[in-house]
Amino acid sequence: MISNYYTLRFLATVLDNVLRGSEIEEVFCQAKNELLISFRADGERRCLTVSCEPSMNYAFLRSQINRAKKNSVDVFRILWGKTIQEVSIQPADRELVIHCSGDVRLLIRMFGSKANVLLIDDQYAVMDSFLNAKALRGTLLSDGGEARSQRKWTRADFQAQLRSIGTILLPAALKKLLPLFNTTLIREACHRSGVNEHKVVAELNEEGIEKLFASCETILKEFEESPKARIYSPSGLPPTLSIISFEHLGDANVEMFDSIHDAIRVFVGKSRKQKSLLQEKESLLHFLTQGTERAERTLQKMEQETEALQRAMQYERLGKLLMANLMELQKGMKEVELEDVFSHDRATALIKLDQKLTPAQNAEHYFNKAKKARAGAEEKLEHQEDVRERWETMRELLDRVSDVQTYDQLAEFTANAGEQLKKLGYKGLPSEAREKREEAPFRIFTVTGGFQVWVGKNSENNDLLTLKYERQNDLWFHARGSSGSHVVLRIGTGKGEPSRRALEETAGIAAFYSKMKNAKHVPVAMTERKYVRKPRGAPAGTVTIEREKLFFVNPKLPGEASQEPAS
Questions:
Q1: Residue 423 and residue 390: Cα distance in Å, rounded?
Q2: What interhelical angle do 170-177 and 183-193 show, nearest 10?
Q3: SS3 for 143?
Q4: Quick one: residue 521, left, alpha or beta (phi over 0 = left, psi -120 to 50 = alpha)?
Q5: How far apart are CA 462 and CA 563, in angstroms?
Q6: Under a CB-based contact definition with an 8 Å cutoff, are residues 481 and 523 in contact?
């Protein structure tokens, strides 16, 4: 639903309200398939992030991000300095249009694997393109949106058209009548009407068709009258973003958002986390399944070795019986039946003999057979218990990881079974360097969105935090004009990207751990870690920063922030 027409139509309306009249500062790319458009309006800077990644197309507005000094490329220089006149959506198509001064437009096409951003003139000719520029420059586009426009059906027409379609499955038939409905919306319409989505159209009765029409009409009305962003997170399944309620996901956890941009940002983070979960779980399942099968094959081979060892013991027993009865035996005998003095019940044993050999040579023959059968078996069987223990451990872990449905469950599993997995040779666990980072000697807090905030305890500890432990894109905070702790919000530890509230809470922590703790409206500077430098020879805890952004906050620890161990 993130790139569904109705979601994009709502997004276009929100973007138009925010961006109309703003000036484009720059357009650039610093990550594969991601375009960043920086705007300024009323002194405030914002950035539209557009992803043309085939697996997930999205666009959302965020606070201005700092451009990297390296590995960043200018795009659409002709747009720099132009004013946004309107943001709209192509009729019945997944294509956002940003109308700019100078009769130029940006087309943001959310077309899956063919997603792109095109710069066009007033004649719809492609002036430039974010992706595949050489092939697309000069292309004359046509407005294909009307071809997919969704007809406004009456109840009678809907019923007649559905009946005329014939014997195809209901979702395919509804797609013909309502081309802007995707699979999720069709499932919701069927759920609300109580109609089985797996039915063939010809199997529907009059009442079923009427209920189906009514549910489709209700869904369309909700898109028009009461869109509100939300994310459904069904247990063990990927999250779903929507701007209307989904009754078929009634059992799922739901988060409501005042901003569609925050919802998309969090959804992208959740989806990436879910993808990471599936990849990590698949890696674990593969390792444990392969390991279990190898251990089973080894145990089967060891069973054969056990049989060989048992044969060796039998041969040796027969050789000993012959040696104990040499005086009763003669050369040329085919067999002999002797009392088995080595058995508990003193049963008799029938022993085959080689007529060409003496009794002593026959005994030696059985000793040689015992030696040959025993060769290598005992050495291999020494590890049988180890292999069996490994097999049982892998089977138990395989059952446990198969039940994992969420990232938190996976994290709990790897934490509890980490030592076992290491002994088994699994290489996918966090490295020792990462574990060392997670045991960092700082104050640790959690702010909105689940992001960790690390706080230095003194000047030397500040240096350690800023210069040794933190990553280049982490956000660095410090009370401006006052001594205090270095405070770092760790990107990647929470859902998606940090919200404005998370940033303000972090700034409040920085103000709290400064000399201005008892003041009000403390100025706190924020910048990315890569813009923090320590001058040569400067005292401990002293740094210089660039590209700072100021927050004015009350010094406090946020209500939901709690000090906890790093994770």
A1: 9
A2: 110
A3: coil
A4: left
A5: 18
A6: yes
Q: In what order do the strands lie in the sheet with 95-100?
A: 84-89, 95-100, 104-109, 116-121, 126-129
For residues 163 and 201, give the distance between their C-alpha atoms in angstroms, rounded to a whole number: 7
Cα radius of gyration (the chain): 36
Angle at 74 between CA 52 and CA 475, to 5 degrees: 75
For tokens 């067999």, what's the residue? Answer: 335
Provide the token pair at 294: 């190898």
Strand ordering across the sheet containing 475-479 = 443-447, 451-455, 487-489, 475-479, 522-528, 549-553
Give the C-alpha separation, 186 to 192, whole Å. 10
**Token pair in block for residue 234:** 């069904």
Type of residue at 502: A
Q: What gap in Å lies between CA 8 and CA 145, rounded to an integer?
A: 14
SS3 274: helix
- Strand, helix or coil for residue 359: helix
pLDDT for the residue numbered 379: 59
pLDDT at 306 over 80: no
């002994």: which residue's tokens? 423
Q: Write the single-letter amino acid at 207.
A: E
Which residue reads 């914002």 in tokens? Answer: 46
User: For the chain, what percentages of helix, strand and coil (3-state, to nearest 5) are there?
Assistant: 45, 20, 35
Give CA–CA dist 234/427, Å, rounded: 30
Quote the Cα angle for 133-73-26, to 5°. Answer: 95
Geometric angle at alpha carbon 431, from 471 and 414, rounded to 5°: 115
Q: How confident is the model at residue 436 (pLDDT cuts 50, 70, 90)?
A: very low
Q: How far apart (Å, rounded) are the C-alpha atoms in residues 381 and 566? A: 45
Quote the CA–CA distance of 260 and 80 in Å, as a whole number: 26
Exposure of 543 by Cβ count < 10 A (0-12 exposed, 13-18 middle, 19+ buried)? middle
Structure tokens at 380: 């291999």
Instruction: Tell me which residue of 53, 100, 51 sits closest to 79, measured CA to CA.
Output: 100
3-state secondary structure of 336: strand
Q: What is the mean pLDDT of residues 1-19?
A: 93
Rounded to whole angstroms, the Cα distance separating 30 from 68 reads 7
Mean pLDDT of 311-319: 86
